[in-house]
Amino acid sequence: xxxxxxxxxxxxxxxxxxxxxxxxxxxxxxxxxxxxxxxxxxxxxxxxxxxxxxxxxxxxxxxxxxxxxxxxxxxxxxxxxxxxxxxxxxxxxxxxxxxxxxxxxxxxxxxxxxxxxxxxxxxxxxxxxxxxxxxxxxxxxxxxxxxxxxxxxxxxxxxxxxxxxxxxxxxxxxxxxxxxxxxxxxxxxxxxxxxxxxxxxxxxxxxxxxxxxxxxxxxxxxxxxxxxxxxxxxxxxxxxxxxxxxxxxxxxxxxxxxxxxxxxxxxxxxxxxxxxxxxxxxxxxxxxxxxxxxxxxxxxxxxxxxxxxxxxxxxxxxxxxxxxx
Length: 325
Ligand SMILES: C[S@@+](CC[C@H](N)C(=O)[O-])C[C@H]1O[C@@H](n2cnc3c(N)ncnc32)[C@H](O)[C@@H]1O
Fold this sequence. Notes:
Elements: H1 12-19, E1 26-29, H2 36-44, E2 50-55, H3 58-67, E3 74-78, H4 84-87, E4 96-102, H5 107-111, H6 137-143, H7 146-157, H8 162-172, H9 178-188, H10 191-209, H11 212-226, E5 227-237, H12 240-252, E6 271-273, H13 283-288, E7 296-302, H14 305-317
Parallel strand pairs: 1-2, 1-4, 2-3, 4-5
Antiparallel strand pairs: 5-7, 6-7
Bound molecules: S-adenosylmethionine (SAM).
């Protein structure tokens, strides 16, 4: 095993507890990273169990290939989890026992100045998680118009000073490095708010560069389709935008959070939420791993067709709905 400190897995026991229900099942870790969660999934699997470890980052795949050398139950797939329905072998469709997503960037990506993810290290404004993506953060910073930048920082960063920051960027560009972007933001945001604003601006850029919201929506839909009945979906999110999508999809089967009802007036959804209250890390986990600070875990189970239709029948047989056939 090499470089064990690549990334410390967040909410590890909780994630594995909800995810692995069948030691002989086929699982997908859509965000392999340093392989922290994957290693614990493997510990729970029998000789017949299988794990697909996906990541769009070449370096993560390279690291995991070394870490799990000689382990035949795991297969690595380089690519975006949003396309897992086409990247995984066809027989996985409808038969996956569990899918895990631990969103965002790994500590390794964050600490590598050349990737441009951190405002605390000077490096190129890149932020691409996968080498196949075209747009970099520098493209966005130097090519977007004022309104596009302002809206991006507001929508994906929830940054209140988005207008002032966008104006300052337009005035100072071209900006090619994280250090230069930091200096520009520092000119318009008071010192005591600076780190929080920078975190929000960098988050917004990363989301846009990696098309994160669309890919999350796609994987929630396609992943649900790939699960077998009673298969588990476990997602760890790190900011409110991704948590909201996940919460709505698990609860309602859509991203807007609109209840969908059957003929009998029962709410129907492809998934059943397993933890009514979102799971967050303990104080001791956050103290040991500050990256866990904003983590939220949600887990859901795929419903069978019978589960969904049984609700309607129960309503009829219990006499609560006199209009049914
Ligand atoms: C927080 S880390 C995962 C850490 C991992 N759970 C561990 O314990 O080592 C997130 C990883 O997911 C990858 N990733 C993020 N979004 C992705 C996507 N849409 N498709 C594939 N990989 C993605 C990143 O490249 C990164 O390596």
